[in-house]
Amino acid sequence: MKVSSKDTKLICVGSIGKPRGLKGEFFLNSFCDPQENICKYSNFLIENNIQLKISSIRKSNSKFISKISSVDDLDDIKQYTNLKIFIKKSELPELNEREFYWHELIGMKVIDINNNDYLGDIKEISNYGSNDILEVIHSSSSIDSTDRKIPFVNDVFVKNIDSENKQIYVDWPKDF
């Protein structure tokens, strides 16, 4: 069985960075927020290679250093550089009400709260520094053919998230 980013039961939490030292250690790139949360998980799956197991993660200054149990030298770890590291979505901690994981929002329909116009579907969520941004792509049934980038600011632009019906209600001008 291969581990793939197309597996809907997995979520990518990091990647294998460049090698560190001669004993098979590597810099681990954490995609968690905050980055230290990667240390809370233990059942990692490595892209394309389910039998590899991460044996340790430690923080050194602002970086994470990690080791795969069966990899003991520099040449061996080089072949795994840039592979993604996954966990099962079921291992993610429960969130409070009105909190969502990004992967839960992808694909939701975006509705203008002012007149119930369907603006499109969330394709991706990005962060350019100040806020998360909902990247909304139009579809054949949306109000127009405009793709939008809407700041994810609760109670300002994002008015309500209906996770049961997979809809996000926003207050966003159509001409923006």
Give the arrangement of secondary structure elements:
Layout: E1 10-20, E2 25-30, E3 45-46, E4 54-60, E5 63-68, H1 74-78, E6 84-88, H2 102-105, E7 109-112, E8 118-127, E9 132-137, E10 148-151, E11 158-162, E12 167-170
Parallel strand pairs: 7-12
Antiparallel strand pairs: 1-2, 1-6, 2-5, 3-6, 4-5, 7-8, 8-9, 9-10, 11-12
What does this structure look like?
The chain is built from two helices and twelve strands, in the order βββββαβαββββββ. With 176 residues, the chain is mostly beta strands. It folds into two domains: 10-90, Elongation Factor Tu (Ef-tu), domain 3 (Beta Barrel); 102-170, PRC-barrel domain (SH3 type barrels, Roll), CATH 2.30.30.240. The strands form two sheets. It has a six-stranded antiparallel beta sheet with strand order 3-6-1-2-5-4. A six-stranded mixed beta sheet has the order 10-9-8-7-12-11, with no helix packed on it. β1 (10-20) and β2 form a beta hairpin.
Give a brief outline of the structure:
Helix content is 5%, strand content 40%.
**Strand order within the widest beta sheet:** 3-6-1-2-5-4
Structural class given helices, strands, pairing? mainly beta
Oligomer: single chain
Task: Assess the beta-strand content as a share of residues.
Answer: 35-45%
Please summarize the sheet with the most strands.
Answer: 6 strands, antiparallel
Task: Provide the number of structural domains.
Answer: 2
Helix content: under 10%
Provide keyphrases for this structure.
SH3 type barrels, 176 residues, single chain, Elongation Factor Tu (Ef-tu), domain 3, 40% strand, mainly beta, 2 helices
